[in-house]
Amino acid sequence: MPNDPHALTVTLRVNGEETRFDVDPRTTLLDALRDRLHLTGTKKGCGLGQCGACTVHLDGRRIVSCLTLAVMADGASVTTIEGLGTPDALHPMQEAFVACDAFQCGYCTPGQIMSAVALLQEGHCGSDEEIREHMSGNLCRCGAYANIVDAIRTVAGATDRSGAAVPSREDA
Amino acid sequence: MNAPTPAIGQPVSRVDGPAKVTGTARYAGEFAPDGLAYAAVVTSTIPKGRIRRIDTTAAETIPGVLAVVSHLNAPSLPYHEMEKRPQVDPKSGDQLQVFQGPDILFNGQPVAAVVAQTQEIADAAASCIGIAYEEAEARTVFDPGRGREPSEETAKGGRPGASGRGDADGALAGAAVTVDAAYVQAREHHNAIEPHVTIASWEGDRLTLYDKTQWVQNVVDEIAHVFGMDKEKIRVISPFVGGAFGSALRTWPHVTIAAIAARMAGRPVRVELSRRQLYNAVGYRPHTEQRVRLGADRDGKLTAIVQEAAAQVATYEEYAETTLQPAETTYSCPNVRTAYRLVEMDVNSPCPMRGPGIVTGLYALEAAMDELAFELGMDPVELRLRNHADTNEKTGQPWSSKELRTCYETGAERFGWANRIPEPRSMRVGTELVGYGMATAIYHADRGAAEMQATVFANGTAVIRSAASDMGPGTYTSITQIAADALGLPVDAVRFELGDSDLPTAPVHGGSITLASVGTAASAACEALRDKLDRLPAKGGSIAETLRANSLDRLDAKGKAAPGEETKTHASSAFGAVFVEVRVDEGLGAVRVKRMVGAYDVGRVVNPKIARSQCIGGMMGGIGMALMEQAEWDERFGKVMNANLAEYLVPVCADTPDLDVVFVPGEDTIFNPLGAKGLAEIAICGVAPAITSAVFHATGRRIRHIPIMAERVIG
Amino acid sequence: MRAFTYERLDAATGASRRADHPGTTYIAGGTDLLQLMQEGIAHPRALLDVSRVGTTGVTAQLDGIRIGAATRLADVIEDPIVAERLPLVAEALAASASPQVRNMATIGGNLLQKTRCLYFRDVTTPCNKREPGSGCPAQAGQNRLNAVFGGSPHCIATHASDLAVALVALDAEVIVERAGGEKSIRLDDFYRLPGDTPYVETALEPGDLITAVFVPIQATNLPGRYLKVRDRASFEWALVSAAVALVVADGEVVAARVAAGGVGTKPWRLPAVEDRLVGRPMDVQTLQLAAEAAADGADPRPGNAFKVPLLVNAVARALAATADQEANR
C-alpha cells in the first residue's frame, strides 16, 4: 500500500524471518500472507473462520488467519505451512499426510497440517475420538478425515505429549 | 529392458503429495501476474425484475479504484452459439449473459464489478454501489404442480419426460405387494473448500486465464464463443483444483467477468468469489421431489417400477438430470415407467454435483426397495439378489462386466449383516437405537476421447502431457503409474503435466471418466513411444541407453484413445453395495453414522490407496447428504439464507465413522483396454438410502425427507 | 469492509473515554467482529484493540472466581481453577467454536457475540436488529435456529454463546469499566430482551469495556454438566443446550441452577425447572418432572417447534448426567 495514507506499518516474524511492510488496516493476516507476502500455502476457504483452511500458528498457537487483522498481529511470530518443511525435507506430519493419503484436492491440507501439528503440542491426541473432536475446526470437503486421523495418530505415536520430536523448521 | 515391478495396482503415494502438503502446489487464484488488480462482484438483491439505476459515483471516487463495470459500460459481447454444445452445458435455453442488460433473472445475479489496486479497496467500493430495481413477481416456490416436461433437446440428451418398458401401471395394479412413497431431497451445494476464482490477463488480443476448472479446454471454447474470439488466442491454466465435485465443470459468469474486468482495467484481474456468492455464482444439486411405486410378487420379484421426479430448474437454461435412469437399469423388472418434470423457478441454474441425477434417483429407488423388503418380510440384500439385472434391461445390452453379487456378499460379510435383527427398534446400545441399512450403488461408466503426448529423455526420465485436470481423485498419480508401467520406468522417473489448454486434448474431468479416458490415452502414447524406440537403429538396455546409443536427447510420441464399438455392444457400469450402521438418539433428535462398509466393482484398481480415499470421501459426502446438508431457502427473497459454512453444514472430522472399503476383483477390458471403470461418482451412490434405511431399522419410522435433521427425528 | 482507523491500546485506563464515540468499537479476539465487518454488518470507523490491555487469567478470590475478560477461551478451559471449580464453564467452552477460534476469542468478546440468525447475517434481507424498523423475516421464514423464549414480533434471534448459558446458570456477573470506575452487572440482567428495540442487546453504555467475569463463591465447586445438541458432531452453534448445576445433601436437592441455550433471545434461565428440583429427593422421578417444566411458556414457530421437546429432553439428560456425576463423587 505505498500510496495509502491510512496504511500502517507492521512487523511480523514469519517462519523465523522478520518482515516489515505497510498494510491497509482492513487487510486480514490471511490476505497479507497470500497477497502481500505471496505465501500462498495458507489457503482461503471462507474468510469467516468457518472452514479452517487458513490455519497458521500465531505466537505458537493455531488460529484462523482470516479472523485477525494483519495490524493486530504486529510484533507477533507467525508460522505457516511454508515454515514446516519443504518438498525435499518434509516435516513428520507432512510426511504422514502423504503416507496416509490424508487429502485429495489438497486445498484444506496446509490448514489441516497446521492444526495437526498444534494438536500434538496441545496434547489432545489420546484417542481417535479426541483427535477427531480437536480437528473439527478444519473442514475437508473431499472427506479425507479418516486418513487425517490416521496420519495424526501415526505421528502422535512417535512423539511425546509436548510434540518435542516434531520441531518446526523455525524451532530447529 | 529390466522392467521394474508394475506400478499399477500398487498403493503409490500421491506424486503431487509433497507439493500439496508444503503449500507449494499452486492453485488458480495463486498466480501473480505483474500488475495484478483485484475485483469484487456486486450481485442482485431481488429475484426478478430490472435494474432501474446504478449509482457508482461513490465507488469510483475511492482512491485505488481502477474501474467499475456494469451493463451500462461493459462491452457488448456476441455470445455466439457454439457449433456443438459442450456436454457440461444444458442442451436447451441460454446461459446467463454477463453485464449485457438490466434484466434480473435470480437473486444473486452479478450486476456489477469493481476493479481496484487491492482486494480491500475493491470490496469496500463494491459495498458503496447503489442499485435501484424495478421488481417483478418472482417464482420462488417449488411447486411440483407447475412441473413441465423437459424440452425435446433435453429429452434427446437422455433426460426424457417419459421412459420405460412394459405396462408398469397395469402390473402395479395387479401386484401382490406394493409400495407407494414420496421422497424429498434438499438442494445441496458443492462447497469445495477452494472458492471459485479466475485471473484474467490480456496481452494485446491474447487472453490467459488462470481458472478453477475441471475442463481447461472447454473454458477456451466457451470464452471464445462469448467474446467472439479465435480459440488460438486463449490459454487456460489450472494445474491444481481445490475440489469441485461438479461445480467447476462449466464456465460460469465470473470467468467472463474476469476477462471483461481485465480488459477494462488494462491490467490482469483476479475475481475470487466469496463463500456467500458461491451459492448463486455456480450451480447446485437441485431440490428434487419423487414418488416411487413398486410392485412385486410374494417372492419379492419386482413386477413394476413407477418412479416420478420433479426437480427445480432455472428459467433461462434447462439443466436436467438422469435422475430416473436407475429405475430402468438397477434391477430386473419387466414393467417400468418413469416421469420427469422440471419446475421452473427464478433461480440460478443447478448443475451436476457428484453422482448427478443418479444419486438422487437412487436415493428414492433404494429407499423404496427397503420399504418393499420390509413389506415382504424379506432381507433387503436378498431382495436385491432376487432382482439382480443380468443385463441392462433399458438397452438390452449385456454388461461389459458386473460383479455386483460379489459386492453384496463381500460387503455383507465384512459388515456382519447377518447379525441384523430384522425387527425395527430391536437393537439398542444404552440410550441409543441401533440400525443397519444397506443399498445398491450403480453409476454408468463412460469415457471420452483423449490424447496424450509422451516424451522420454536421455537421462532416463519421461514426461506425459495432456490437458486433463486433477481436482483430487489422484489423476496425477494414477496416470503416472500407467505411463510408468507402459514405459518400463519407475514412477518417480515419470512426470505428468496437465491443467493447461495448450496440451493435447482431454475430455471433461467429471463423470468418473478421466482414468478410463486419459489413462487409456497414456497407455497408447507410451506404447507408440515404445514402438518408436524399438525401431531405432541402435539398441540399448534401457530407454536412456537406447536414446544415447542413437545420439538422441529425447523422443516423443502421441497416442489417443476413444470409445469404440463396445458402447454399441455392451453397457458399462460401476457397481457397489453400501452397508451402514447408525445410532439414533431419539430424545435428542440425533442420528450419527457409526460405521460403513462399501464393496465396489470398479474394474481394475490402478492405485488402491488413492481409490480408497475416493471412496471414503464419497461416503462422507453421502453422510452430508443424508443427515445435514440443505440449502435453507426463503421463498420471499428467492435466496439461500444459510449461504456460508457455519449454517450450511458439511460433515466435520467428528462426524467420521469407521469406514471400510473393499474392491471386489474384476477387470473390465471390454470397456477399455486398461480395465478400469472409474470410481468418483459410485462412491457417493447408495450412501444416503443406506443411511435412511438404517434409521428406519433403528426407529421404525420412515423419514422420507433428506437430510434427516433433528426436527425430522423428533417431529 | 469500509475504511477504519486502528489503534492498539497499551493500558485499559481511559479506554472507555476513548471509545465513547460513535463508530468506535473495541476489538480483542476479533472472531465475531471480523465476520460482521467482512459481511458488511458492522462498519466501525475506529477500532481500539484491547487484546493486550485487559486482565487475563483466572483468579480465585475469597468471594468467588474472577476471569479476566481478555483471557482466551482455550486458556480458560485449560486453567486448573476452572477445571476444578467451574467444570460447567470448562465444558461449555470446550463445546464452543473450533480449537483455532478458542485460541483467539476472549471471554469478554464471547459474551458479546452477535446472533447467528440467518437474516441478521445476510445484509440483503430486513432485520430489526441490524436495521431498526426494517422487519423480522425470521418470524415466518427459516427459523429452525431461532428462539422459542423471549422473542417479540420484532425479533426472535437466539443468543449464540455457550459460555453465557453456563454463566447465567451460575449467577455470574460482568465487571465493566465505565467512565473510570468499575461496575458489576448480573449477567442475567446484562442481556436485554428484544422487545421493540432488538438492536439494544446489553446493558452496556457507550465506551463501556468488559474487564472481567465474576462467578460468586456459592456457584463454584458445583457438580454440573453442559449438554449441547447440534446437527453435526462438532463445530456448530447449539440447536439446544442445557447447563445444569446441582447441590445435593442427604439425597435431597438443596440448590439447582438450570439454564438453556439455543432457545432464548438471551441465555435462558429456567426457574420453573429449578423450583421443581429444590427440596425434592434426588431421584429419577424428580428429575423427569422438573425437566418437563423446561419448555413452560415456550412460543415456538413452525420451523422451531421441535425445540420444545428437544429442550425438555436435553434438560432431562443434563440433569441425569449431573446426578450420575454427583452419585460418583
Uncertain stretches of chain C: none
> Strand pairing plus helix content of chain B: what structural class?
alpha+beta
According to CATH, what is the topology of the largest domain in chain B?
Aldehyde Oxidoreductase, domain 4
Number of domains of chain B: 3
CATH classification, class level of the largest domain in chain B: Alpha Beta
Task: Estimate the helix proportion of chain C, in percent.
Answer: 25-40%
Q: What do the pLDDT scores of chain B average to? A: 97
Q: What is the CA-atom radius of gyration of chain B, in angstroms? A: 26 Å
Tell me how many strands of chain B there are. Answer: 29
Biggest sheet overview of chain C: 5 strands, antiparallel
The coarse silhouette of chain B is: globular
What is the arithmetic mean of pLDDT of chain C? Answer: 96
Most residues in contact: chain pair = A-B, 64 and 67 residues
Strand and helix map with partners:
The complex is a heterotrimer of chains A (172), B (715) and C (329).
Chain A: E1 8-14, E2 17-23, H1 29-36, E3 55-58, E4 61-64, E5 77-79, H2 92-99, H3 109-122, H4 128-134, H5 145-157
Chain B: H1 17-21, E1 37-43, E2 49-55, H2 57-60, E3 65-70, E4 103-104, E5 110-116, H3 119-126, E6 130-135, H4 152-156, E7 162-165, H5 168-173, E8 177-185, E9 197-203, E10 206-211, H6 216-227, E11 234-237, H7 253-265, E12 269-272, H8 275-281, E13 288-296, E14 302-314, H9 325-329, E15 336-345, H10 358-376, H11 380-386, E16 391-392, E17 397-398, H12 404-415, E18 428-429, E19 432-444, E20 450-457, E21 462-465, H13 475-487, E22 494-497, H14 514-535, H15 543-549, E23 554-561, H16 566-569, E24 573-585, E25 590-601, H17 608-627, E26 633-634, E27 639-640, E28 658-663, H18 687-699, E29 705-706, H19 710-714
Parallel strand pairs in B: 1-12, 8-29, 10-11, 14-15, 21-22, 25-28
Antiparallel strand pairs in B: 1-5, 2-4, 2-6, 3-5, 7-15, 8-13, 9-10, 9-12, 13-14, 16-17, 18-19, 19-24, 20-21, 20-23, 24-25, 26-27
Helix pairs in contact in B: 10-18, 13-14, 17-18
Chain C: E1 5-8, H1 15-19, E2 24-27, H2 33-38, E3 46-49, E4 58-61, E5 64-68, H3 73-78, H4 80-85, H5 87-94, H6 99-104, H7 107-111, H8 118-121, H9 162-169, E6 173-178, E7 181-186, H10 187-190, E8 209-216, E9 224-229, E10 240-249, E11 252-261, E12 268-269, H11 271-275, H12 284-291, H13 307-327
Parallel strand pairs in C: 1-3, 2-3
Antiparallel strand pairs in C: 4-5, 5-8, 6-7, 6-8, 9-10, 10-11, 11-12
